[in-house]
Amino acid sequence: MATHILLKNTFKTWTINQNSDSWVLGKNATLMVANAPAIFMNSKYHDNEITILGDILNTGRDSYGMLLFGDRTEITIGVNSNIQALSGVTSLGVHTTVVNKGDIDAALYGMALGHNGTLINSGSMVGIGGVAFSKHGTLINLEGGRILGGENGVVFGSGSSTLVNYGLISVSQIIQKSSQV
Question: Coil, strand or helix: which one is 178?
Answer without folding.
Answer: coil
